[in-house]
Amino acid sequence: MVRFLAVADIHSRPGAIQAIQDGASRYHPDAVIVAGDLTNYGDAAEVTRVLEEIPGRVLAVPGNLDVRKAFEAGARRSHAESVVGKRIEIGGVIIAGLFDGLAACDILVVHEPPRGILDDVGGGRHIGFAEHLDALKRLRPKVLLCGHCHESPGVVVHGGTTVVNCTLGSGGRGALVELDGNQAVARLL
Question: What pLDDT sits at residue 27?
């Protein structure tokens, strides 16, 4: 079995970083996966600082509030690994960030949720991305990790894929994701 602590929407907040540290200490994941928004338009030094405060192996993608160049530079300077445009294998599980030409993977990491799935911000407004829903349907990963929508943390199964909005926004504490063969189990913390 391979275990991941999945989080999103840190926004440089000390309380969010503490929640990640507590989760890593309690659950001993094989890696912490960050589905974006490490900062609020922070520079490379801020991205590095946030990533360095996350213990263990860390995989990350940028969110809409992460400046892409700052994210890439900050990730390179830290112990974390960017999964943008990459496929990384841990314990037989393939983790990938969304990019053009993406091949099959076990865990797909994006920031924005797929359109219509865990993306309700209230009043019937959905802010998910159609291209992420298309990728989910095309690639059929075991797990899709996202954040962005602080109002809709949760775990749902859609077309055989476990979709996890692991936001730390609005008091969330992320999610624990475990894969054992073809079985994927996730729960909010």
Answer: 98
pTM above 0.90, yes or no: yes
Phi, psi of 52 (to 5 degrees): -70, -20
Helix/strand/coil for 170 = helix
Specify the CATH number for the domain of residue 25: 3.60.21.10
User: What distance in Å separates the CA atoms of residue 5 and residue 28, rounded to the nearest whole number?
Assistant: 8
| Number of folded domains that form the chain | 1
* Residue 144 CB contacts under 8 Å (≥ 6 apart), including other chains: 107, 108, 109, 110, 114, 132, 136, 161, 162, 163, 164
CA 144 – CA 77 distance, rounded (Å):
27
Cβ(66)–Cβ(37) below 8 Å: yes
What is the distance, to the nearest Å, from the Cα of residue 65 to the centroid of all Cα atoms in its chain?
14
Which range marks the domain in which residue 117 is found?
Answer: 2-188
Measured from the Cβ of residue 159, the count of other Cβ atoms closer than 10 Å reads 10
Read off the tokens for 181: 């063969």
Model confidence pLDDT, tens digit, residues 48-73: 999 999 999 999 999 999 999 999 99
Which H or E element spans position 133? helix 130-139
Query: At how many degrees (to 10) do helices 68-77 and 44-52 cross?
Result: 50
